Amino acid sequence: MPVKALLMSVLLAAALLAAEAQAKLTIEITGGVEGAQPIAVVPFGNVDGAKPDVDIAAVVAADLARSGKFKPMPRREMLMTPHREQDVDMREWQLLAMNSLVVGEVTPRATGGYDIRYALMDVFSGKTLLADTVTSTTKGLRNAAHRIADAIYEDLTGEPGIFATRIAYVTSRGHRGRVALRVADADGFNAQTIVDSAEPILAPAWSPDGRRLAYVSFEGRQSAIYVQDLASGRRERVASYQGINGSPAFSPDGRRLAMSLSKDGNPDVYVLDLSTRQLTRLTDHYAIDTEPAWSPAGDHLVFTSDRGGKPQIYRVAATGGPAQRVTFQGDYNAAASYSPDGRWLVMVTREGGRFRVVMTDAQGGARRWVSNGSLDESPSFAPNGNMIIYATQNNGRGVLAATPLSSGASHRLSRDAGEVREPAWSPLAR
Amino acid sequence: MYPCPRTVAALVLAAAALTGCATQPPPPQPTPPSAAELDAMTQQPEVVAEVPPAPPEPVAPVSPLDDPNSPLYNKVVYFDYDTAEIRPEGVALLRTHAGYIYNTPGVRVTLEGHTDERGTRGYNLALGDRRADAVQRFLVAEGVPADRLARLSYGEERPAEPGSSERAWSLNRRVELVY
Questions:
Q1: d(Cα B10, Cα B16) in Å, to the nearest integer?
Q2: pLDDT at A24 over 90
Q3: CB-based contact, A291 to chain B, within 8 Å
Q4: A residues 343-372 near B, CB within 8 Å?
Q5: CATH homologous superfamily of domain B71-178?
Q6: Does B83 touch chain A (CB under 8 A)?
């Protein structure tokens, strides 16, 4: 069976690339952070001969620093290193002008792996805000640390943390080099190749449960949309029509996939029911209709169309019908997507020959610049709505950048060996 | 008149096979070869000997598609920024190809649409499709049966020329006729 053979060869390629995939997505912070809260994350103690190969406190501190909302205290400035709440002398930390303190210790489990007990304390009142024990396998220590950072972040800010999430992205090596779709932890570690090809791969999109990725691949010199299960590597080709098969986007309930197809002549937005395989045409216009993105409620979609002569953002009900224009400022607005709360849109706009990321309200007004490059693209919100990730150029090379929305000064670039582009942030963990 | 493309293809393939055999480099041997490998090596000349010797001059007529002196050698039409409108110089070239495709039974062509890197990837995928579609409709209007043509947009993913200069951009906004 040729289809099976193709699937096998792709899986094999993925397996062979696993070793090479150790090269991680490194993430840098460029620019300072203003108004960040001081917090001390004391190195965790190791009890009963525990020898974890991950420095839990260091991972937690790095996560909190990357959020732009916290300024973890350098270890060399710590005068004491308590591991339990009862051992904390809070006056010391008050003198060091800390707002919050994190202590913890790691204990081996009889059945393998570790128990990580930690506490978050308020330095001013001396009260324990949060105390919990997280169990982890030996291999899962980084993820356990990210979950601890998520809990601390949520307790202190009231918003969900995104440190245990993942980022999908596309890499390529040189002009017409091999292309790979990869997934890394939100801090750039554990980068894994999902699929690798000599032909282009683009437009990765997460399912709402974070278990599947949809993407466009040109394997065999044909364009097709695939949906791949990340745990098993199994995948399905869900669209391979004549013309384009582009811009897949899962509906918020995960049951449907919006996409742009030109099988009927010109690119229009369609919705595929993933269980019944019924394909519904949502737009029907002789212009380009593409880059659909669902509203968080799933009742409508926004998309890019040049029906007015230039690309602008329009919206259409999930059941179809007339489209309404959303953006009016500028002569190129494209690739819009919603913030998780549905209040904002992020998109690419052209101004003075530069393509930059801009944020507007859901009605297309109240514009706010997010990026400052000249070929910026593929923006999307982090799943807690506090950050926007996008692709930009650094010295002629494609890199990823993330801008926290709370403090505009902080900026992050992430890199790999080759070109990196088309970031897509996973939904919240679990 | 143009020769039958199947004959041309067969002759070109045969020529390629011969050249391939004649110029095949010996395999690298970092370690002493095993007995089996030595057997294989001694058999190699026999394999080559089975192939009839290459003629001194290729007698096969070169396909006009591969002949630098033929107008059909050029298989790329270019576009202005953010448009799928065929330029006047593209019209002349496409008419030549339309005649060739029309007169050459069995020939199938994929029209590969491309854009420059500016703008979003999703929109560029659609724009490349519009360019391929414009060329397809032109060729069909010139009499080419639609079932001999397929279109495939790569958007900005397969630039002909890397870089972010006006020159690179102008070379990348194109439709390639892939026979």
A1: 10
A2: no
A3: yes
A4: 348, 350, 355
A5: OmpA-like domain (3.30.1330.60)
A6: no
Nearest in space to A392 (alpha carbons), one of A408, A411, A407, A417:
A411
Query: Which residue matches tokens 């970031």?
Result: A423
Under CATH, what is the fold of the domain A165-425? Neuraminidase (2.120.10)
In tens, the pLDDT along A113-165 reads 999 999 999 999 999 999 999 999 999 999 999 999 999 999 999 999 999 99
Give the span between the Cα atoms of A382 and A393, in whole angstroms.
20
pLDDT, mean of residues A43-60:
95
The CA distance from B64 to B75, in Å, is 11
Q: What class, spelled out in words, does domain A34-157 have in CATH?
A: alpha beta
ipTM (interface predicted TM): 0.88
Note whether A356 and A372 are within 8 A (CB): yes
The answer to whether A41 and A98 are in contact (CB under 8 A) is no
| Structural domain boundaries in chain A | 34-157, 165-425
Token pair belonging to A46: 């190791």
Q: To the nearest whole angstrom, how far is the Cα of B107 from the nearest Cα of chain A?
A: 18
| CA-wise closest residue to A279 among A232, A228, A231, A225 | A225
Can you tell me whether residue A19 is helix, strand or coil? helix
For chain B, domain boundaries: 5-50, 71-178
Kind and range of the H or E run holding A44: none
Residue partners of A420: CB distance under 8 A and separation at least 6: A25, A169, A170, A171, A391, A398, A399, A400, A414
Taking the C-alpha atoms of residue A78 and residue A64, their distance in angstroms, rounded to an integer, is: 17
